[in-house]
Design a protein that fits this description.
Structural class: alpha/beta
CATH architecture of the largest domain: Up-down Bundle
Largest sheet: 6 strands, mixed
Number of domains: 2
Shape: elongated
CATH class of the largest domain: Mainly Alpha
Helix content: 55-70%
Distance between the termini: 58 Å
CATH superfamily of the largest domain: ABC transporter type 1, transmembrane domain
Bound molecules: adenosine-5'-triphosphate
């Protein structure tokens, strides 16, 4: 457990550094994902064994046909020739069938493994705490789910079957060689020593190369995702050329890493082929010598030559598969690091139910709370705060004062470093996630719109809501007149990021969503965008409707919002420096009064 949180703390800050035991963790993950399909894997092993045996029997039958069948046939007895030949045909046919079913089954198992891995990763990424997402770039997570996934897919569906079949054939042939003639077997296996050496050296280098390649391509993807995500800023500040130069750099690193990997593959391929051919020559030399000395028959020598071919033959494919395997395992390691990360905010195992809500929302308390982000710098020094049920509190203060941090504790995106946040007396750490999400809803600044219709976007507030309830919510916040003017009314597609909606309309959709969700506590990070006067009035009216009958904390950027609050909290450098009704604070002539004065002036 502490192991896991270590991992989460480490990975976002040093995203390219993986823990030393990552290879074992990746293997454990793979076994875990494969477990439900164990019968399939067992059948596959049997098929592969049959395939291997088929491969091993073939040359032995040929030896028999040559050494016994042909001399017997010359003497007039063809049976000794026909039987091994018929058996050879049968074995070839059976091997073909095993090959077919093996390939199909490997493909199916690989696809299922991919689907479970993808699902596990996506599910996990969604559930990882806001803390993780705030530290990790989304590009990196996109790269885990695209290019890394693809690498695993390429290996599993393309090369795994070659590898399995190749290894099965090699294993069965090795056993047969020993049984048939141990002297010749030793000659064949001698080639194994340099082969093992080449494999180990190349494996180490390739592992490094592939990790480097995965990191390099992740950087390219991060850059692309960032550029597209901030395309408006990119174009406004003419960042195109800078971005071009950066991507050229990143591509160069990717190219160098790939080139190193290719060099290694070439070296490994040439080495293994050379060893295969030398083994063939050695078998011919020793075998020929034994044949001359009458210690071996020509048929057996032919069989041995065929075995060497069949033994070293799959190596070509294994070399290819080996590179893909290295690439896939580097990708799997990166994915494992994400899947192994444990959210810092954990759901309680035996949650405390919240008491029944009274009309007017819930009481919120910050009891001796202090908070710092992972870096340990205190953002909120110890403080106490009580918000009675039904109160609307406006949080104001300079940028960086800690307003968003305070509401992140209330929504339990983070847990306080010290003290407790309570809702109707229950520590938020004791509340089940579902109860908490039902009780507290946060409307964010960006008023994020998902793909789909306007109705879909409102319904996010309460997924089971009827069309009538969705329409009522839109009515309540004054959104209906806008929707009527849209081409398909409630069914209008909001397109990417609400491209068809103005910022004011997006806020109203968010309000409708919150209205439909009907939380006990509403947290609102008000958009800073300046709205024109009619829109501002509209948003203000909608806000008043949404706030009714619940507790609310609003990060207020607009004077009009502060005016409808029951209470204003002024924050400065993480501290609550003023706390009273708007009127009292204006009268006291403190910070808020100054801020208010400046607002008034800007409106004049
Ligand atoms: N995820 C984070 N990790 C580390 N530090 C953070 C993180 N988020 C905010 N901070 C720091 O915490 C302090 C308070 O930030 P916060 O976002 O709460 O301020 P704010 O009052 O909401 O500002 P604004 O009005 O500009 O949104 C700032 O110094 C900020 O740099």
């Amino acid at each position: 457990m502490s192991d896991h949180s270590d991992q989460e703390r480490r990975s976002p800050h040093e995203p390219d550094t993986l823990p030393p035991d990552i290879a074992q963790r990746a293997r454990r993950l793979l076994f875990d994902l494969a477990r439900p399909e164990r019968t399939g894997y067992l059948v596959l092993v049997v098929i592969l064994l049959l395939f291997g045996i088929g491969n091993a029997i073939g040359p032995a039958l040929i030896a028999q046909a040559m050494d016994r069948g042909i001399p017997a046939a010359i003497d007039g007895d063809t049976t000794a020739l026909v039987i091994p030949l018929a058996a050879f045909l049968l074995v070839t046919l059976a091997t073909g069938v095993a090959d077919f079913f093996g390939t199909r089954l490997t493909g199916t198992l690989a696809q299922r493994l991919m689907v479970s891995l993808r699902r596990r990763l996506f599910d996990h990424v969604q559930r990882l705490g806001i803390a993780y997402h705030e530290r990790s770039t989304s590009g990196r997570l996109v790269s885990r789910q695209t290019s890394d996934m693809e690498n695993i897919q390429v290996f599993l569906t393309g090369s795994l079957q070659e590898t399995a079949i190749g290894l099965a054939a090699m294993g069965a042939i090795a056993v047969t060689l020993i049984v048939m003639d141990w002297r010749m077997a030793i000659v064949v296996f001698l080639g194994f020593i340099p082969l093992l050496w080449v494999s180990i050296v190349s494996n180490r280098a390739q592992r490094r190369n592939q990790r480097r390649t995965r990191t390099a391509i992740a950087k390219v993807i991060v850059h692309i995702v960032e550029t597209l995500g901030g395309i408006r800023a990119v174009q406004s500040f003419r960042r195109e050329d800078v971005n071009d130069r950066r991507i050229v750099e990143e591509d160069r690193e990717f190219r160098n890493a790939t080139a190193a990997s290719l060099r290694n593959t070439a070296w490994f391929a040439a080495g293994t082929r050379l060893i295969g051919n030398l083994s063939m020559a050695a078998v011919l030399l020793v075998g020929g010598w034994l044949v001359i000395g009458d210690a071996l028959q020509v048929g057996m020598l032919t069989a041995f030559l065929l075995y060497v071919r069949r033994f070293y033959g799959p190596l070509d494919e294994l070399v290819q598969a080996f590179t893909m395997y290295q690439s896939a395992s580097a990708a799997l390691e990166k994915i494992t690091a994400v899947i192994d990360a444990v959210p810092e905010v954990v759901e309680p195992t035996s949650p405390t139910p919240l008491p029944a809500v009274r009309a007017g929302g819930r009481r919120v308390e910050f009891d001796d709370v202090a908070f710092s982000y992972g870096d340990g710098v205190p953002v909120l020094p110890r403080f106490d705060l009580e918000i009675p049920a039904g109160q609307t509190v406006a949080l104001v203060g300079m940028t960086g004062a800690g307003k968003s941090t305070l509401v992140k504790l209330l929504t339990r995106f983070y847990d306080p470093t010290a003290g407790r946040v309570l809702m109707d007396g229950v520590d938020l750490r004791e509340v089940a996630d579902d109860d908490l999400r039902r009780a507290v809803v946060m409307v964010t600044q960006e008023s994020y719109q998902f793909g789909g219709s306007i109705a879909d976007n409102i319904r996010i507030g309460r997924p089971g809501a009827t069309d009538q309830q969705v329409r009522d919510a839109a009515d309540a916040v004054g959104l209906t007149p806008f929707i009527r003017r849209m081409p398909d009314g409630f069914d209008t597609d909001v397109r990417k990021r609400g491209g068809r909606l103005s910022s004011g309309q997006r806020q109203l959709v968010s309000f409708a969503r919150a209205f439909l969700a009907d939380p006990d506590v509403l947290v609102l990070d008000e958009a800073t965008a300046h709205l024109d006067i009619p829109s501002e009035r509209q948003v203000q009216e909608a806000l008043a409707t949404v706030l009714e009958g619940r507790t609310a904390v609003i990060i207020a950027h607009r004077l009009s919002t502060v005016e409808i609050a029951d209470r204003v909290l002024v924050m400065d450098d993480g501290r609550l420096v003023e706390d009273d009704t708007p009127a009292a604070l204006i009268a006291s002539g403190g910070r808020f009064a100054k801020l208010h004065g400046a607002w008034e002036e800007s409106r004049a």
